[in-house]
């Protein structure tokens, strides 16, 4: 368990370092694009910086996948470490029950009310983070805040209430990603699939992922695909 915790901290540090490097290079690339005096030299530099950004994006995506695997494995080991036996109707015969392996995060018991820093929306407890963070930074921020980056509920009343709560023209990070399997979108900490009705209409019409857009954000129109290094507000929730 200690090794897993150490590995988690190491991967989170690497994610933050990659995110900083990508953000720095992206700003440099934008500055170079605005400088029209250097002509062909600027174009060469921009192309080189763009190639570095794309490579860092790929490394960030791989590290993000490893972080999710480590955190899910940690939760699984914590769940399986508790003694559990089945009674076969004989007070002297006890046998250890077989536990099916899983890498999903186990939800907390249902609560009638939310913590003071979380907001009750329908049946869920949510925290709306105002700081603009990258996707991996938002994952870590929600864990530090006692929750998980948002997993959308299935289409229905709860999803409608949550979308109605969003500020107009504001885009938030969710935990939706296809880093584990390109084109197969799921929510990071629960492994629940992203459903077709979760997507905004224009995203649902296009199934392709372009320009390293492997993380999903949400607005009042639904989910959209973005680079994981974009900086956005985010939503945390407590699994029920």
Automatic annotation (TrEMBL):
- GO terms for CC? plasma membrane
* One GO molecular-function entry: transmembrane signaling receptor activity
Q: Which InterPro entries match?
A: C-type_lectin-like, C-type_lectin-like/link_sf, CD72, CTDL_fold
- Source taxon at top rank: Eukaryota
What this protein is called in its record is C-type lectin domain-containing protein
Source organism of the structure:
Cherax quadricarinatus
Q: In this protein, which residues make up the domain named C-type lectin?
A: 121-237
